[in-house]
Write a structure and sequence with these properties.
homodimer, about 200 residues, 2 domains, five-stranded parallel sheet, DNA-binding
Chain lengths: ~200, ~200
DNA sequence: GCCCGGCTTATACCAATGTATAAGTTCGCA
DNA sequence: TGCGAACTTATACATTGGTATAAGCCGGGC
């Protein structure tokens, strides 16, 4: 089950290739958006939907591998499928090490690309769900005041209230107040919950 | 700092290659053990020290990629560096997707191999440390009785003792006894500790 | 038959945590 | 100057958790 608005981005400097790939993908019901160079893709403001990137290695201006590096750098973890006519082993190894999902040499079978896209979109969907949960968690954490964060750190380290009070130089009563605020703001139903949240926050 | 007994395993059917690689590695102080086919390596009983595997893709009998699959299957997660004279892109991509650390085409520069080995050994050392910790944790968990495990599951889910008692159909007093045993056997100094342990146990 | 480990319960007490309510201080910003 | 947020403390009480000590039940193995 593909999510409704899943989109495939294609970056290739050869217009005929772009059209061929677009046609192939549209034939199986995928939404496609094409770009002729890396900069054009970088500028484009993407919707927040599952997506993947079909990327030629050899491009005018920024190379495919360099674009991959830039995206990683920027924290844009869109799954990348490389396609290239002039690839070699070191290039493919570098791309895979940098986290590419697939590396296909032209000519490749249509089905190989479609399979890779299917897998990449599923992967991205999972990653988005995980990312959204992490973002929600972080957002809740951001609502904590400085002191509450310090108290939370003590709690998840298993400190007793009196020990926490000592560390923070306050009374146990104040620690209890902080604790209540922490549990409420983080929407944690138990200390166990809070510990798991803290683990995910890193 | 390389650990003292780190060992590099080489599987290649060409004796001259084995000797050349051995010589290269020994020249930088690495311990080496060579094999002429996959089965020979599989049979060999390795010491429990940091290691990596330099593996030719084309081998008599079991291929390098197949050996990689077998090792993964068996839970042997030794880092693998592929070397091959007759490689192609799909082969390298498959190897990397299956978790290979590196894929080098012959001829390659000696330093490239040595760099890859260095990285693989470091990786294996980290993995071994993590694995040892996980094993210790699991060993402690194994000492828990059935009932204690059930109680632990409740505790890490944030249940109150009375709720746990309800779920297990016992009194709160008994739950407290179980809890004490759990904390002692797991060597957890706090509930927070225990939750983290449970997370690692999966 | 007896011992042991696992499982259970009990009493009594102390420590820790949570809740409710109220209020003081400090500091920046309107 | 006054308001609000953050931080602080307090009292009083209820609930929960932890410790110490003791002991009953049951099933498997020596």
């Amino acid at each position: 089950m593909r999510p409704p608005a899943a989109t495939v981005f294609v970056v290739d400097d050869d217009e005929s290739v772009r059209e061929a790939l677009s046609s192939l993908m549209r034939s199986v019901g995928l939404r496609v958006k094409t770009f002729s160079c890396g900069a054009e893709f970088t500028r484009y403001e993407r919707e927040d939907v599952p997506a993947c990137l079909v990327l030629d290695v050899r491009l005018p201006g920024v190379s495919g591998l360099e674009l991959q590096r830039q995206l990683t750098e920027a924290g844009t973890d869109i799954p990348i499928i490389f396609v290239t006519a002039h690839g070699d082993i070191p290039m493919s190894v570098r791309a895979m090490k940098a986290g590419a999902m697939e590396f296909l040499s032209k000519p490749f079978r249509d089905q190989d690309l479609l399979d890779a896209i299917e897998k990449a979109l599923e992967h991205d969907e999972c990653a988005r769900i995980a990312h959204a949960q992490a973002a929600g968690l972080r957002a809740r954490y951001e609502t904590l005041t400085l002191r509450e964060r310090e108290a939370m750190a003590c709690v998840v380290r298993g400190r007793l209230n009196k020990q926490t009070a000592d560390e923070l130089g306050i009374t146990e009563i104040t620690v209890k107040v902080h604790r209540r605020h922490i549990m409420a703001k983080m929407q944690a139903k138990s200390v166990a919950d809070l510990v798991r949240m803290a683990e995910k926050l890193g």
